[in-house]
Amino acid sequence: MDVGLVLQTDPPAQTVVDLMVRAEELGFSHGWTFDSHVLWQEPYVIYPRILERTSRMMVGPMVTNPATRDWTVIASLHATLNEQFGNRTICGIGRGDSAVRVQGRPPTTLARLEESIHVIRELAEGRSVELHGTTVQIPWVADGTKLPVWMAGYGPKALDLVGRAADGFILQLADPYLVEWTVKTVRAAAEAAGRDPATITICVAAPAYVGDDLGHARDQCRWFGGMVGNHVADLVTRYGETSAAVPAALTGYIKGRDGYDYSHHGRADNRSTDFVPDEVVERFCLLGPPSAQLERLAELRELGVDQFAIYAMHDAREATIEAYGAAVIPALP
After folding, report:
1. Phi, psi of 38, rounded to the nearest 5 degrees
2. Are 206 and 284 a contacting pair, CB within 8 Å?
3. Where are the alpha helices (DSSP H) in 57-167?
4. In degrees to the nearest 10, what's the CA dihedral of 174, 180, 181, 184?
5. How many Å apart are CA 43 and CA 227, to the nearest integer?
6. Would you tell me how many other CB atoms lie within 10 Å of the CB of residue 148?
7. What residue spans of 3-70 are helical by DSSP H?
8. pLDDT digits (tens, 9 = 90+) for 139-192
9. What is the bridge-based pairing of β-strands 129-131 and 134-136?
C-alpha cells in the first residue's frame, strides 16, 4: 500500500515544500494539496518547487474542480509540469466544495464533471477534443505524456461516474464499512461500462493522528467530520434522510449540523463541527499509536485500498509524518 500526504497550502509556501521533501525521504509516494485558492495559497505555483526538490513523489491537487479553473488550463498546467519533471503529476478532481462555496457558488454538476475529466485527460496527454464546437489540441505535449485523473465522490451517481470515467477513486473517509460499500459500487459501475475494475486505483484520504491520547486526537480531527458533512448534506438533500441508496452510516450523523464556517475549513479549531460525535471521528480517521494505524491500514488493504493519504491538519502534523516514516510505512506490505 502506498501512503500519501495531503497538506493545505498555508503560508509560508516554503513549509509546504519542506514537508513534502521530508515526506519523500520517509517513503511517502504522493504529495497532495488542497486546491482552494481563496482560503489558501495557489497550489500550482508551489508544485514545481516540490517537484524540483524530489525525485519520485507524484504531486497534484486533492482536489481541483471544473468550475474555478478552465479545463484547458488544468490540462496545460499538468502537461507543463510533466514536461519538466517527467510524468509525476496527478489530477484529483471533484464537483467542488470550499473553492466554489466560499465564493457563494454551488458545486458543479456530475455531467459537467464527467465532460471535464475527459477533456483534461485527453488534452494533457496530447490528444484532441471537441470543445465548444471547436477541435482543440495542445501541440507541444510529447508522446508518452500521462496524466491519471482520480475522482472524489460519495453518492451513488458520483460513484457510478468514477467507475465509468476515472483512473482512480478518492474516498475522503476511512470507515471500513463505507470503504467496502463505495469500492464495490465503483467496481460494479466499471464492470457495467466494460472496464476492468482492477485498473481503477483506490485511494482513501483521511486524518491520521499518531499518539496515545485518543481524546485529544479526536478533538484535533473532529473538523474532518464537518468537512465530510458538507458533501453528506448534499446527498441528504438529493436522496432524503432514510434513502436506501445511501448508507445511514454516512448520512445519519449530520442531523445536528447547523451551518458551516468556511473561514475555519479544514482546521482543528472549527467550532461548527461540534456536532460530529466521537464514534464518527474514530470511524472516519486513523487515531492512536503505530500499531493501531497498521491495524486499520491492513483492514483497508483487504478491502482493495491501494493508497492511504494522510490529512495532516492538526497539532501533531510533523510528529505524525515522522511516525509514519519510522514505524508505519516500513511495516506495510
Report:
1. -85, -45
2. yes
3. 71-85, 98-101, 110-124, 156-165
4. 130
5. 20
6. 18
7. 13-25, 47-53
8. 999 999 999 999 999 999 999 999 999 999 999 999 999 999 999 999 999 999
9. antiparallel
